[in-house]
Specification:
The complex is a heterodimer of chains A (about 850) and B (about 325). Chain A has about 850 residues and is an all-alpha fold. Chain A folds into 3 domains: about 375 residues, no CATH class; about 240 residues, Cytochrome C Oxidase, Chain A, CATH 1.20.210; about 180 residues, Cytochrome c oxidase, subunit III, four-helix bundle (Four Helix Bundle (Hemerythrin (Met), subunit A), Up-down Bundle), CATH 1.20.120.80. In chain A, about 65% of the residues lie in helices and about 0% in strands. The termini of chain A are far apart. Chain B folds into 3 domains: about 60 residues; about 120 residues, Immunoglobulin-like (Sandwich), CATH 2.60.40; about 100 residues, Sandwich (Immunoglobulin-like), CATH 2.60.40.1120. Helix content of chain B is about 25%, strand content about 30%. Chain B has 4 helices and 16 strands. In chain B, the strands form 4 sheets. Chain B has a 5-stranded mixed sheet, with helices on one face. In chain B, helix 1 runs antiparallel to helix 2. The chains are: A mainly alpha (about 850), B alpha+beta (about 325).
């Protein structure tokens, strides 16, 4: 029933939407970026061989290397390799056939891959971003050329990150719907394996944390391309960025560590032959961490001008969040007690990860004491601490690679090589990172340090190369296994419990030969075709079970959309010189004013290639999105599944709700930026930007009316009234256009007065926030236009009116956002 | 108590406890891993996990809770204990309010500049030993972080923000590159270092301050010859601060020059030189005096009124005083 080409064909990998294929792609790509990020590290560790540098890197080159190392490791290696495991094993662990939205899953991957290609390209467009992975403002914008060159490559890096975050957002929606709605019968949420639990919490955190990052990156991207002033002023820009970034950045620590923790739980249980001690409490501890992770971000800002009360509060929440980890660590240790511990390679890596994490945790307590934090801020203590934590996570992820390799490849690896790998790895790790504690007075990201520090830095550099060697051994081990390894049995590990070990290695395309069910308290494969419902807890009608539909696994359009977005983003990244020229000539002609004078320009000349790429990219995007929209694609459906607590709504509706939840955070961050900057400026000193409030009021009425017409559209679809549906959707579009018309008039009046988006901070806030909303309206109009086309061409939505309802949800949301924007920008 | 003392106190306790806890926990982990290693003759286990079972936990978790509560007590106690120290560091020692030296520190890519409360702007940070120094840190361009590791003092330099903190230096000496930048700020970040000088005591510091306030004034005619006669009076008036007005008679000049030591407030001064009769055109200038300076004024004969542009290197842009003018010491 598969319409997929064989795995040896390249086409297979371009069209596949199968979760195991996508998982494999994620793993392979993430390992490639591990190598790339590692090369960056070797490069600057070589520079750090002696104080003042060995001269292989310039000051700017060094900054590029440390920045790219951080960004690539955190974004393009750590999260995606966990995504790879999750793609492959979460559906298997919960007994699903695939993710809820297989094509979106493929799209996530292509966004990820293309974003990675973008950051690789950024090196060749005047140099990649060089302001550190934390991208502190105002170094991240073009205003300060003596400090940093505002390169096109830097802007490409920002857009690469935006594309990456889009990939993450799609992935989180997909996994949330899948884990909540596709669990095998009898597998309650409480019962899902711990790797899946850790991933579930990871994606919940991702959903909100990455939305905040998306908002920050959008504002930064607009600053860099359109020369707005969010991060360019001395009116709170620096603090605004720090707040937005760390609101994302601290949860991100747990986002990258949780999957590793999940792997540790799985491997400890398997290789100790014991169930996790205090499983219930471990899960509760993880949930607590996930929630609390959003309340500690300001501990990255203890040394800024935030006041003592806030510092005290954040200090308390920070200690609070460290405690659940104590419990998890003890749970792992006690799981070994009375167990049957087998020192296989995956267990060695997991045990190593635990030891390293203990050290990372203890050194983290130092940073929790604010007085010590003051002194450790910006030093190698921080570098050493977070590498002990993050790379302990990497250690566990390698454990995962060894643990699941037989399942993925169908081959066993050589334990000898694996153990050699671990020995070299563990030695290299400690030789690399431990001396950093001793050299802790060295500031981060410098290659000038005191003589007394030199020996430690040299040890670290040697350690870096040893660690790199261990990865070479790892690749050799897997290569050797793939070529010469003996065939892996279904379950190579004694005492493993989870469902992926109950099927062949590698698993067949459709995963299961019968329907997996835990209804009896034990995994069984039920043959639904042979026997009638056995009285189990079926959540849908038996009729639904009969529909053994043809499930699709192939679509080229996710790849196409990825390509189109990629080309568009590259094009947009190079538009800055055009905007700057426009700004310059407008100022010189006296048509525009800028509050702080003309900022420094980008270091690139206008290049016609970029506008052309933008147009080509948009054309590809339009075509592929359209084809994606009209393609017949049946995702593998689960007729019987555990769906608590989302049994009442269908997959797509839950997906839309989850997406809107993340969009709330995006707008929340944008509106938060407005409030923050305005408070910083003095609330009443704010100058209202729109020339009058009536256009805003008019637009409020227009949008509210359009919400009404969308509701009517749903009623018409339910009544199967084609004309009525067309009329109401058409009316909605007309109202949308009217809104955009009023907006265009309002903008043009402001332009006529010489007030542009680059004229000052207030102007930037006004144009960008309302512009972000207008972009949502435009996207809604495009969807509405597509829906009208579908009604006309294939009488869509008359049988199944749900898409109209989903569109309505989105449209109402956009209207509600306006209800907030109108008073903020027009009235108060 | 200096910040070094505070840091040492806390750090050593943390280090000792951290090492102890680390050794205990890691040893216990490895001990268990070894003790419960799988061997052929193990038969003591009853209920081994089986493939496909619904996950449950193992063990009662009592031990887990005891360990957890113990670790929580250690951590919370430690942090609470440091909180008092935090309050001390936030407020500073008592002397800080009364007679502390105040220095505004400014980071600009890629150097530091200092402005003392007496208006001095030396190009290195000089403080007396054992005296509290209050600093207020900001930036003119991007985010920097000002820090002197040996004094355990650090503050973020953020454009538009003024981050205040303090320190007390104990050991006199000249420390090369002791001041560093701790936040990535661009291509020159790595070498954004500055020297730091600690003087013996308050007395040595005051001497240094006096030295800094040395103003040499030379009067020349148009042929660059010293003017020895015909000067009635030279006055110096601080442009912003009251009470800093100084006047010198012509006969206090020696061979057209005078060395002034009595000024104790740096900043912008208005200079007026009045002739006896109409020997030369009266001079009205503005000078920036933020460190040892040499000023030369050309006194022009009354006839040529027009070109008076070259008489002084600094032509009165009164408002900006942050150039290098007075800093050569």
């Amino acid at each position: 029933m598969s319409d997929l080409p064989p795995k040896t064909s390249i086409k297979r990998w371009l069209v596949t939407t199968n979760h195991k294929d996508v998982g494999t792609l994620y793993l392979a790509t993430a390992l490639f970026f591990l190598v790339l990020g590692g090369m960056m590290a070797l490069l600057f560790r070589a520079q750090l061989w002696q104080s003042g540098g060995t001269g292989i890197l310039s000051g700017d080159g060094f900054n590029q290397a440390v920045t790219a190392h951080g960004l690539i490791m955190v974004f393009w290696f750590l999260s995606p390799i966990a995504s790879g495991f999750a793609n492959y094993f979460v559906p298997l662990q919960i007994g699903a056939k695939d993710l809820a939205f297989p094509r979106l899953n493929a799209l996530s991957y292509w966004f990820y891959l293309f974003s990675g290609i973008m950051i690789a390209l950024s090196f060749f467009q005047g140099g990649t971003f060089a302001g550190g992975w934390t991208m502190y403002a105002p170094l991240n914008v073009p205003t300060y050329t003596p400090a940093v060159e505002a390169t096109t490559g830097g802007t490409i890096t920002v857009f690469a990150l935006i594309l990456f975050v889009l990939s993450i957002t799609l992935g989180t929606i997909n996994f949330l719907v899948t884990i909540h709605r596709s669990r095998a019968e009898g597998l309650g949420l409480w019962n899902i394996p711990l790797f899946t639990w850790s991933w579930l919490l990871t994606v919940w955190m991702m959903l909100f944390a990455f939305a905040a990052l998306l908002a920050a990156l959008l504002l930064l991207g607009i600053d860099r391309v359109m020369m707005t002033q969010y991060f360019a002023t001395d009116q709170g820009s620096g603090l605004l960025w720090a707040h937005l970034f760390w609101f994302f950045g601290h949860p991100e620590v747990y986002i990258v560590f949780f999957p590793a923790l999940g792997i540790m739980f799985e491997t400890f249980q398997t290789f100790c032959g014991r169930r996790l001690v205090g499983r219930k409490w471990v899960i509760i501890a993880m949930v607590l961490v996930a929630v609390q992770s959003f309340l500690v971000w300001m501990h990255h800002m203890f040394l800024t001008t935030i006041n003592l009360e806030i510092k005290t509060l954040i200090m308390a929440t920070t200690i609070g969040i460290s405690l659940p980890f104590d419990l998890m660590v003890f749970a792992l240790i006690y799981t070994m007690v009375k167990g049957r511990v087998r020192f296989t390679t995956p267990f060695l890596f997991s045990l190593g990860a635990l030891v390293l994490f203990i050290l990372g945790g203890i050194t983290g307590v130092f940073l929790g004491a604010v007085v010590l934090d003051y002194e450790f801020r910006g030093t190698y203590w921080v570098v050493a601490h977070f590498h002990y934590v993050m790379v302990s996570g990497v250690t566990a992820l390698i454990a995962g690679l060894y643990y699941w390799w037989p399942k993925i490849s169908g081959k066993m690896y050589s334990e000898k090589l694996g153990k050699l790998n671990f020995a070299v790895y563990f030695f290299g790790f400690n030789l690399l990172y431990f001396p950093m504690f001793l050299a802790w007075e060295t500031p981060r990201r410098v290659f000038h340090f005191g003589e007394s520090m030199q020996i430690y830095h040299q040890m670290a550099t040697v350690g870096a190369f040893v660690l790199a060697t261990s990865f070479a051994i790892m690749f050799i081990t897997f290569g050797h296994s793939y070529l010469y390894g003996p065939k892996a049995p279904d379950n190579p590990w004694k005492y493993s419990r989870t469902a992926e070990w109950a099927i062949p290695s590698p698993p067949p395309l459709d995963n299961w030969s019968g329907r997996p069910s835990y209804a009896s308290g034990q995994l069984e494969f039920v043959d639904d075709a042979a026997k009638a419902t056995d009285g189990g807890v079926a959540t849908e009608t038996p009729a639904a079970q009969q529909e053994e539909e043809h499930a699709d696994h192939a679509s080229i359009w996710p790849f196409g959309i990825g390509l189109g977005t990629f080309v568009t983003f590259i094009g947009i990244s190079g538009l800055t010189p055009y905007v700057y020229d426009f700004m310059e000539s407008a100022v010189e002609a006296g048509n525009a004013e800028i509050a702080n004078g003309l900022p420094a320009g980008p270091d690139a000349e206008p290049n016609i290639m970029f506008p052309i790429l933008t147009v080509i990219g948009l054309m590809i995007l339009t075509y592929t999105l359209f084809k994606f929209g009209v393609e017949e694609f049946n995702a593998p459906e689960m007729a019987i599944a555990e769906r608590w607590p989302f049994g009442g709504i269908d997959n797509t509706k839950m997906g839309v709700w989850v997406f809107l939840a993340s969009d709330v955070v995006v707008f929340g961050a944008a509106i938060g930026a407005y409030v923050f900057m305005r408070i910083h400026m003095g609330w009443t000193e704010w100058e209202t930007i729109p020339f009058a409030s009536w256009p805003g009021l008019l637009n409020t009425y227009i949008l509210l009316t359009s919400s009404f017409t969308v509701i009517l559209a749903l009623v018409m679809a339910e009544r199967q009234n084609k004309k009525g549906l067309l009329a109401t959707l058409g009316a909605t579009m007309l109202l949308g256009f009217a809104f955009m018309g009023v907006k265009a008039y309002e903008y043009s009046v402001k332009f006529g007065d010489g007030d542009y988006w680059f004229s000052g901070l207030e102007y930037s806030l006004y144009y960008v926030t309302t512009g972000l909303h207008a972009l949502h309206v435009i996207l809604g109009l495009i969807v509405a236009g597509f829906m009208i086309y579908r009604v006309l061409s294939i009488d869509a939505y008359l049988e199944d009116h749900r898409p109209v309802e989903y569109f309505g949800l989105y449209w109402h949301f956009v209207d509600i956002v306006w209800v907030f924007l109108f008073p903020l920008f027009y009235l108060v | 108590m200096t910040r070094v003392d505070v840091f040492e106190d806390i750090f050593l306790v943390f280090l000792a406890l951290g090492t102890l806890v680390g050794i205990i926990v890691v040893s216990y982990t490895l001990y268990n891993a070894y003790k419960y290693r799988d061997t052929e003759d193990r038969t003591d286990d009853k209920d081994l996990p089986a493939l496909g079972e619904l996950p449950t936990g193992g063990g009662s978790g009592k031990k887990l809770f005891v360990s957890f509560i113990l670790s929580a007590i250690v951590v919370i106690a430690l942090i609470v204990w440091t909180y008092g120290m935090l309050l001390y560091v936030e407020d500073g020692p008592d002397e800080l309010d009364e007679d502390a030296i105040e220095v505004d520190v400014q980071g600009s890519a890629f150097s530091w500049s200092y402005e003392y409360d007496n208006g001095l702007e030396p190009n290195e940070l000089v403080v007396p030993a054992d005296e509290p120094v209050q600093i207020s840190v900001t930036s003119t361009d991007v985010w920097h972080t000002f820090g002197i590791s040996q004094e355990r003092v650090k503050a973020d330099a953020i454009p538009g923000e003024h981050d205040e903190t303090w320190f007390i230096a104990e050991d006199p000496g000249e420390y090369e590159n002791a001041i560093e930048c701790f936040e990535l700020c661009g291509a020159g970040h790595s070498s954004m270092d500055d020297d730091f000088r600690v003087l013996e005591d308050q007395e040595a510091y005051e001497e240094w301050v006096d030295e800094q306030f040395t103003l040499d004034i030379t009067l020349e005619d148009e042929d660059e010859e010293p003017v020895t006669e015909g000067v009635d009076e030279l006055t110096l008036v601080h442009q912003e601060e009251e009470g800093h007005e100084y006047a010198y008679d012509g006969d206090e000049f020696e061979n057209g020059s005078i060395t002034i030591n009595e000024i104790d407030q740096g900043g912008d001064y208005d200079v007026e030189i009045t002739p006896e009769g109409d020997e030369f055109e009266p001079v009205e200038e503005s000078i920036v005096f933020t460190g040892p300076s040499d000023e030369t004024f050309t006194l022009e004969s009354p006839e040529d009124e027009e070109d008076d542009e070259e008489n002084n290197e600094d032509e009165g842009d009164d408002e900006t005083d942050n150039d290098e003018e007075g800093g050569e010491n």
